[in-house]
User: Which sequence fits this backbone?
């Protein structure tokens, strides 16, 4: 090619045309790529600076993905906290419902002296179960107080099995057939059933008929309180004094009438076959069966007193005597009346015996006394509640657990006997609310377990670290306070609530305080997470803007101005056309020389 010689004009036009083609190629590349700097050869400074900016923007973009995941993790935790707060509020509502519920079960017991032993310390109410736990407090049903009593004069004996009229017999023949005189001069006395009559008799010689004594005696009886109760009569010529009715009373005499009543058949004691008397107006009857011994008599007297609602009671007195006494502290005065009241007197045939005061009498407490004692007792106060239910002892079980009341029977009577008992049911409403509380607590823990995102659960104590810059010098660590989980245990709620936890209002109030503290703790943690979320979102916005800045800076260094490049292309195309024409004209000059050679 070196042998070819071009003219100066052709060579100059050819060089210009080559430069134009090169410039057009560069412009076309810029138009095709949009960049004015595509390689380090184009502009090393701009190329490497733009690469650095784009690299940093790419790293921030990767961090932005981490921030997005962090935001979602915080949102998951916040969702969990929101649900936990609602659950805690439901638990709070459950406890408030328990606090307001007062449907505690009650039982009313009849308190009668007939059913309660007056032996010191023998009769008690013992409380087992309920809210007492292992404690078994007892309430004495009796106390020592001043009261009145009567005691049988002799050890108790049963009434005669067969009724009999009191009779005085004689062996003295009142006819003139007797062999000795009768001294009767003076005033004699006949006594029966506590009433007496005076009779004036005369002396009778052995040969004198003395049968008019019968008339004299009957006339005296007819004019006395013994009229209709007693009569004198002749039996085989002998005097006999006999009662007209069967009464537990004997006929006694004083004076010379005894001379008319000597010898003969044995006298007969009066017997009604029963004891009859009244205790403050309550009629008592004992026969040979119901009063066969002192124990049986006490039982049957008490049955009759109990039927009448009496405040008095029979007990076995000293020496197997029959004792009737005030059975309560408010029994009042005692008066025994009736035909057989003399059982309780040293004087025979008295029909009224007043009680004597005993300053240390064992008596049954009144219902009001027991109510006050139960409600003010440190062991029972607030656990049970007692009241006077129209004359009955009413016990309210302030617990969700069944309460056993020893010393009562199944028929609703207070007996004081520890071998007998009855049950007052627990509060089923509060018990059901305890179960509901446990269900809510379980759901709270499950929600805390499920509040995870991408394997991170902030509510279980996981730590979330979010890096904000490419060098790792700016970051945030997000975790529950002290690295603890948000569950029922860490919130201070009972692991398992049992019904007895709701027995007392004070216990419910304590649980309400615990739930309130838990709500405050959860809301504080939600506030902290909210603050963390705000920080991350702010960094998200900052990172996006920073990426835009970096990418914009890189673009400014490498992007081509398309308008400018398009204009350059048009100019280069024009230049190329002109250069081509100029080259053609230069070649035309060389061809003119060739024409001369032809």
Assistant:
């Amino acid at each position: 090619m070196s042998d070819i010689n071009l003219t100066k004009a052709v060579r100059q036009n050819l060089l210009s045309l080559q430069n134009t083609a090169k410039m057009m190629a560069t412009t076309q590349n810029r138009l095709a790529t949009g960049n004015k700097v595509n390689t380090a050869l184009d502009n090393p400074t701009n190329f490497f600076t733009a690469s650095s900016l784009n690299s940093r923007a790419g790293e921030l973009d990767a961090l932005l993905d981490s921030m997005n995941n962090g935001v979602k993790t915080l949102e998951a935790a916040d969702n969990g906290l929101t649900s936990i707060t609602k659950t805690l509020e439901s638990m709070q509502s459950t406890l408030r419902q328990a606090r307001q519920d007062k449907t505690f079960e009650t039982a009313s017991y009849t308190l009668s002296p007939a059913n309660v032993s007056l032996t010191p310390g023998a009769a008690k109410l013992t409380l087992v179960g309920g809210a007492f736990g292992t404690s078994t407090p007892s309430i004495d049903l009796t106390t020592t107080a001043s009261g009145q009593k009567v005691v049988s004069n002799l050890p108790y004996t049963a009434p005669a099995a067969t009724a009999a009229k009191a009779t005085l017999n004689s062996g003295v023949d009142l006819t003139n057939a007797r062999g000795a005189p009768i001294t009767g001069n003076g005033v004699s006395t006949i006594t029966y059933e506590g009433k007496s009559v005076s009779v004036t008799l005369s002396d009778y010689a052995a040969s004198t008929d003395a049968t008019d004594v019968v008339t004299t005696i009957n006339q005296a009886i007819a004019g006395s309180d013994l009229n209709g109760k007693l009569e004198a009569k002749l039996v085989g010529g002998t005097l006999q004094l006999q009662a007209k009715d069967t009464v537990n009373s004997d006929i006694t005499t004083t004076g010379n009438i005894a001379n008319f009543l000597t010898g003969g058949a044995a006298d007969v004691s009066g017997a009604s076959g029963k004891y009859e008397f009244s205790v403050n107006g309550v009629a008592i009857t004992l026969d040979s069966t119901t009063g066969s011994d002192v124990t049986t008599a006490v039982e049957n007297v008490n049955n009759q007193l109990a039927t009448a609602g009496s405040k008095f009671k029979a007990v076995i007195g000293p020496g197997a005597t029959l004792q009737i006494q005030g059975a309560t502290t408010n029994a009042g005065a005692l008066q025994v009346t009736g035909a057989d009241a003399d059982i309780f007197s040293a004087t025979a045939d008295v029909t009224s015996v007043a009680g004597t005061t005993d300053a240390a009498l064992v008596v049954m407490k009144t219902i009001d006394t027991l109510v006050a004692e139960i409600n003010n007792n440190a062991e029972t106060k607030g656990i049970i509640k007692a009241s006077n239910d129209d004359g009955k002892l009413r016990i309210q079980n302030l617990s969700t657990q069944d309460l056993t009341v020893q010393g009562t029977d199944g028929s609703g009577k207070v007996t004081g006997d520890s071998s007998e008992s009855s049950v007052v049911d627990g509060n089923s409403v509060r018990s059901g609310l305890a179960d509901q509380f446990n269900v809510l607590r379980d759901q709270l823990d499950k929600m805390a377990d499920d509040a995870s995102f991408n394997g991170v659960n902030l509510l279980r104590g996981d730590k979330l670290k979010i890096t904000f810059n490419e060098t790792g010098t700016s970051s945030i660590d997000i975790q529950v306070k002290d690295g603890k989980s948000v569950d029922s245990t860490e919130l201070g709620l009972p692991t398992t609530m049992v019904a007895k936890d709701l027995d007392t209002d004070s216990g419910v109030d304590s649980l309400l305080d615990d739930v309130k503290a838990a709500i405050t703790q959860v809301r504080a943690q939600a506030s902290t997470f909210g603050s963390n979320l705000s920080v991350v979102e702010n960094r998200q916005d900052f990172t996006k803007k920073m990426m835009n800045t970096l990418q914009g800076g890189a673009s400014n260094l490498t992007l081509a101005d398309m308008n400018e490049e398009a204009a350059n292309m048009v100019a280069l195309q024009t230049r190329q056309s002109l250069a081509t024409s100029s080259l053609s004209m230069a070649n035309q000059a060389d061809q003119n020389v060739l024409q001369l050679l032809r």
